[in-house]
Design a protein that fits this description.
It is built from 22 helices and 20 strands. It is an alpha+beta fold and 662 residues long. The protein has 5 domains: 3-75; 88-175, OB fold (Dihydrolipoamide Acetyltransferase, E2P) (Beta Barrel); 183-444, no CATH class; 451-499; 501-645. Strands 13-14-15-16-17-18-19 form a 7-stranded mixed β-sheet. Helix 8 packs across helix 17, helix 9 (238-254) packs antiparallel against helix 10 (259-276) and helix 14 (354-380) packs across helix 15. The longest helix is centred in the middle third of the chain and has 27 residues, at 354-380. The protein is globular. The N and C termini lie far apart (66 Å).
Amino acid sequence: MSMARFNKYPFLVLLLPVIAGIAGSECFSFLTRETRYILIGSATAGLVLSFYMRRLHLLLPLFAGMLLFTVALSRSHSPVEGVIPGQVYQGEGECVEVLRQNRYIIRFHGYNLYLQSNDTLSSFIVGDRLAFSAKFFPLKQAADVHEFDYDRYLRQLDIHFRVIPVTSLDRVGHVNSLYALCQKARSYLNHKLTGALREPSTRALLQALCLGDRSNISPHVQTLFKESGTVHLLAVSGLHTGAIYLLLTYVTGFLGLPKRVQAACVLPFLWMFAGITGLSPSAVRAATILSFVIVGQLLGRDYKAINALCASAFFTLLLSPHLFYSVSFQMSYAAYAGIILILPLLHVERKKSIFARGYSLFALSLSAQIGTLPLIAYYFHTINLNSVLINIVLVPIASCLLYIGVILLALPGVLISWLAFIPVAIYRVVIFLLEQYNRVAIQWYELYPTTVHLLFFYAFVLLGIVYLKRREMLLFRAILGLLLLFLLYRGVELFQEQRHQEVVIYDRYRQREVLLNDRGYYTFLVKSDSTALPPPYAVANRLKALPAHDGFITEDLCFKENCLVTPRLTLYIADRQHTAPGKADILLITNNLYPDRLSGEIAASTRVIVDRSNSFACTRGWEEWSKQRGIPIEKTGESGPIVIPIKKRPLSVQMKKSVPRG
């Protein structure tokens, strides 16, 4: 990129190597700590030399990019080295977040831990220092079977281990950090609202809008917001922070303050709002972006919105690289980018009227929705196609309710009780509108786009935006070329799906479930639950269900008496009725089968897998059994679902064509 482009969008250029370093951290996980430090030192030396030596000036962007890439790569490295799973460690840690009752995030020697305590009599708050002894277990790196994975969610919170206390948790002190003070302020305001506002549903919605606490919202209300595509209103986000910014700007403007004085007054109040939300990540992101805008106004600089957005993302990811994989982070920046890039294209010069204001809200909502719809489909597998309509109505009402909530929080408890009828009335209007709208909401279900699909979509959007601004034929040809490339990719993808074969061993508590994907069709080899609904894995891969059977024989697969024979491997599913695996390549232990009930010996090369249909004692028995024989063992309870590919190889013995049995 030319220096002119760099000077125009410096943080956009700097952000790209940071994202590349974070995204590529798993590919470079083999690099040791010393190697990463050497790379950082080399890039720094190259950057300094290119800065002072004229002959190397052209290499300055290259070395800067290398430095940012290696720094992001190093900071994204997961600190699980040297920790023995199941080993007891002891020490002191600081409680940095309370997830639910008796579930905490603890900062322990630089690690974030997920700790679940069985002690229901003790409770802790953010900032408490706890002394404990606990067993450490790394989070599961499970295969993606298109189901919610709590360990994957914990990794998005920068948590590295799940720990089980073996002693009681003892409070040994308290740290009054800024984060702890903000959490304490949020807790105080929560209690104040609870004592003054008796109507529970309205109080729960105000706690969500103003304080970011959604724990008290009823399932019915959550369902209404989810089905209408307005669930973003329940979480303190950029929308709420932006509404507070607009209110503060209007008030300071109404008072007749100069522009720079307005900016200087708005900034501390903006961060005060982020503070009472407990420094919610989404509120902090929005406050950071608006701070760049406000500082630009204070300095009298001609700032660009996209550069302020990239600057916020740049510093946020350098400090907390794990946020790159956070759904909230991605949704926030996708919405901001959509508004910045698409909204100007929808702008129409109109006289100030109620229709003009309505169109402005429509354009704003549509711009944000275009930016976030692919991510909604990717993570939640369903989208509301006409949610932009309800957002036009509900966003102003929610903003009004937010303003009222903030004002009420600043008043004494007695006044809150007297004025409670106002938010209660608005709450009832919101629920009425949602119930009526959900009758005509258009939902698109069972969407499972891949990461490549998302990249293609956003590439189309960016090229389309640039084309609408410049109207160059070259850009139009690039869009057509990208469309052709996407169609070619989809053709190859569909061809591979029709030839794909693999076995999925699920991680189900007290149940066994093994699925076979055979070239566009699926069947359960064993299944405890008799539900007929197809699993998300089958829906995502567009698989068709085969009829129920006791076994089958195809050209290259044979399943008989709990034994699956393929050209590549043999999988034996052992239970209380099937105990003679022979020389199977993979032995799957299910249905609480103990080692002493296994008939005969198995080969030393056999891979043993124990699923969670087995009890803890049974699993321990298989661990000891495998250790004595030097046989590798895997447990779905530790690894999560396991996917075993079945690759085609020439058959030594041809099997008969498909003959279903039973």
